Amino acid sequence: MPLTQTQLASAVADRAEISRNETKRVLAALEEVVLEELGNAQKVRVGGLVQLTVRVKPAQKARKGRNPATGEEITIAAKPASVDLRARPLARAKAALPSVQKARRRRLTPRLGAAGPRSQPPSGSWHGLPFSRREPSGQRRLAGFSDHAIPGATRSLR
Question: Does 142 have pLDDT greater than 60?
Fold first, then answer.
């Protein structure tokens, strides 16, 4: 679950030993300064964590292309110049990254909701998908899937 603004303010307040209100004002001031500098097309480094860069993408001329479905030649419209924001993680942020195994384990850990963990899917469904009909072989077919879309998309009720 991502860190919210309130959680960030609380964590910073605890570590810096200042009040949450002061921390919220500091974070709001940081946001204003960063946005002002980006508005002036300046490069901004936030601590040793990330570097924000404003990039101007050049205009593209109209060009010839080919429709991949029909092979017909088409004209691809011109694109005007645009402005883009790039965020580059710096060394301290990269060093803080977890190992691949830890990151995978973190992503696969079930999160507890208000209802708590579900040990089994609700009755009348298979992995939360509703059944649509019973096959003559005693199996049920998943709703919305044709026979060829997902091989083995049936489940025996025996």
Answer: no
Domain assignment present for residue 108? The answer is: no
Query: E strands of the chain, at which residues?
Result: 44-46, 50-57, 63-66, 73-76, 82-89, 125-126, 129-134, 139-142, 154-156
Q: How far apart are CA 43 and CA 36, in angstroms?
A: 11
Is the pLDDT higher at 157 or at 10?
Answer: 10
C-alpha to C-alpha distances, 126 to 42, 51, 121, 136, 146, nearest whole angstrom: 53, 46, 7, 18, 16
Whether 3 contacts 12, CB under 8 Å: no
In the three-class reduction of DSSP (H, G, I as helix; E, B as strand; rest coil), residue 9 is classed as: helix
Instruction: Provide the pLDDT for residue 152.
Output: 52
Are residues 22 and 36 located together in one domain of the fold?
yes
